[in-house]
Amino acid sequence: MVAQRMCTGDCRDAGPLQARSQEEAEWLIRHQYPSQAELERLRSESLDVLQQKASVGDSTAAAVLGKRIALEKNFMDGQVMLRNQVLSGNFYALYAISESYRESKVPNAVDGAAYLRLAYIMGDHKAATEIAKMGLSSAELAAADRRASLLYKGFAGDQVPDPRPQG
Predict the structure, then answer these.
(1) What CA–CA distance (Å, rounded) separates 136 from 159?
(2) CB neighbourhood size of 146 (10 A)
(3) 58: phi then psi, degrees, rounded to nearest 5
(4) How far apart (Å, rounded) are the C-alpha atoms in residues 148 and 47?
(5) What is the mean pLDDT of each successive set of 10 residues along the chain, which is 167 residues long?
């Protein structure tokens, strides 16, 4: 499992699913981040297959399912599923929530950035890079930060931030 998350080649720009050290790969596993290959495989599955995998405890399948339900069926039902994943320690679900806001029929970049900021607050320093890639204005970034501070209490639960190892 660790090997699947290790960056190969030039790792300076390793994405949020890639680790530059074994310690970082273990952090990804602990916080239920999928490998890139696992995520791509699950994204191609039907809703029924995702539901079946999620029902037996596959947290990545549950995050992919929550995002798909949010985008394809009922936005709020998908968000509830994703929030439950975050409360169970699945920090990757914050990325899925962010994507669902940015990819919805009525995109909301500020809320999308707020959930990435929450991932950052919980310890994922690579979420800041993902926010920067969004190209938001200063006002939008300030609004996203305010929103993230409001979301923290409802999403962090009794979890404490666990900083991602710097590779």
Answers:
(1) 29
(2) 13
(3) -80, 105
(4) 30
(5) 90 92 97 97 98 98 98 98 96 98 97 98 98 98 98 89 91
**Look-up of token digits 């499992």:** 1
Q: Which residues of 79-113 are buried (b: 16+ CB within 10 A; e: fewer)?
A: bebbbebbeeebbbbbbbbbbbbbeeeeeebbbbb
Report yes or no on whether pTM surpasses 0.90: yes
CA distance 71 to 101: 9
Quick one: CA dihedral 165, 65, 52, 40, positive or negative?
negative
Residue type, 38: E
> Which residue, 127, 122, 124, 131, is CA-closest to 156?
122
Token reading at 120:
């950052």
Contact 43, 64 (CB under 8 A): yes
**Paired tokens of 41:** 């495989």
